[in-house]
Write a structure and sequence with these properties.
single chain; 3 domains; ORC1-type DNA replication protein; globular; Helicase, Ruva Protein, domain 3; 51% helix; Arc Repressor Mutant, subunit A; 17 helices; 401 residues; 12% strand; Rossmann fold; alpha/beta; five-stranded parallel β-sheet; nucleotide-binding
């Protein structure tokens, strides 16, 4: 008998808990879906699409809702007179505006005729895109650009697509753009000309609360696990932990899935709160590691500085105190120190990542106002990840000595 069998003590269909699974219904997003229908009704009527900007934190249903509503539109269009819709999806993660434009061109081409993502003038790539759009049989083309905040300051494509008809680049086909972003502050970084077109209509996806997360987890659990495999406290505990931190359904589902794996590995037939606690630590460690790897070492040092102050019971704390402590730590480990202004940018960066909390203290007309900072993450998880990460492990080790 081999080591693998097809028996499972907890899972009935673990595929239900994967990112690739699409549920039949999207829980707690009725308002957002209704807004989508209202905005896209123009397409169904044969009119020019309105451009949409969709934003919200990771795991709150933005992409899934967009996929489901556009699938409905594509299914319903067979009943429309003189309306044919083509949807073009492109994830923009780690890509420039120019590279995405090349990918959009290649959407309309056979594989052996695709263009490279280097070597062409930007205007040439755009011209090729307009030509393909004009040649399509569709009356409407909707471009969906997921994670468009990857563009950062290069927003030329976000200007060109919505204005292609106005600028005379396209005469027949009606085109629209749906931009999806995890960072709602990205809108503020766009040029004024892009904001006036891309953000024509906005849909905001708020984080899920604990009750909504329980409903989502129950929906998945009914299909994923065998009867009796979940103890009663598992779903409420998972929902409460995630609602307090991020409100991300993806995170909650990952924790529930990992709890099942832990139980199965231990040959336990019932998933309990202890499995959830271990799974939560695993998932959070992975999320934190991914986030920290994207930050420079100086940000790691600043984060560890705030962590050390929190463990000393000295937070919330003003920036000057953080800078003094930061200089001490940096000097002890032989690192260059940054200016107060640079430290301020690092703190704001860590605040946007959710690692620290920024609060304004207002002393009135005479006392003025200032900011204080406090740690806003699981201290043990942050410490574990910092210590396991090669560069910062040495920093913490030397500081501890």
């Amino acid at each position: 008998m081999g080591r693998f069998t097809q028996t499972d003590a907890v899972f009935d269909n673990e595929e239900v808990l994967t990112d690739g699974y699409t549920p039949d219904t999207l829980i707690a997003r009725e308002d957002e879906m209704s807004t989508y229908v209202e905005v896209l009704q123009s397409v169904a009527n044969g009119a020019s699409p309105r451009n949409i900007f969709v934003y919200g934190d990771t795991g709150v249903g933005k992409t899934l809702a967009t996929e489901m509503i556009l699938d409905e539109l594509l299914e319903d269009q067979v009943e429309f007179d003189n309306v044919s819709v083509e949807v073009v999806w492109q994830n923009c993660k780690d890509a420039t505006s120019y590279q995405v434009a090349c990918h959009l061109v290649n959407h309309f081409r056979d594989r052996n005729q695709e263009i490279h993502t280097t070597g062409y003038p930007r205007s040439t790539v755009h011209r090729k895109l307009w030509e393909h759009i004009e040649d399509t049989d569709a009356t409407h083309v909707l471009f969906v650009l997921d994670e468009i905040d990857s563009f950062r300051s290069d927003d030329e494509l976000l200007y060109q697509i919505p204005r292609a008809h106005t600028n005379g680049n396209i005469t027949e086909t009606k085109i629209g753009l749906i931009g999806i972003s995890n960072n709602f502050k990205f809108r503020d970084e766009l040029s004024a000309r892009v904001q006036s077109t891309l953000c024509e209509h906005e849909i905001h996806f708020k984080p899920y609360d604990a009750d909504q997360l329980q409903e989502i987890l129950s929906q998945r659990a009914d299909e994923a696990f065998l009867d009796g495999a979940l103890s009663e406290e598992v779903i409420p505990l998972t929902a409460a932990k995630v609602a307090q931190r991020t409100g991300s359904a993806r995170e909650a589902i990952n924790i529930l899935s990992n709890a099942g794996f832990i139980a199965r590995d231990n040959n336990d037939s019932t998933i309990t709160d202890s499995h959830v606690t271990k799974a939560y630590h695993q998932v959070q460690s992975g999320v934190v590691k991914d986030e920290l790897e994207a930050l420079p070492t100086q940000s790691h040092v600043v984060l560890y500085t705030v962590l050390s102050l929190a463990r000393q019971g000295r937070t919330p704390v003003r920036r000057k105190v953080i800078h003094d402590q930061y200089k001490t730590i940096a000097q002890q480990i032989g690192r260059d120190t940054v200016s107060t202004r640079t430290l301020h940018r690092r703190l704001n960066q860590l605040s946007l990542k959710g690692f620290i909390n920024l609060m304004e203290v207002n002393k009135g007309s005479n006392g003025g106002s200032y900011y204080k900072y406090e740690f806003n993450a699981d201290e043990d998880i942050i410490a574990d990840v910092l210590e396991s990460e090669s560069r910062v492990g040495q920093i913490i080790g030397q500081h501890a000595d």
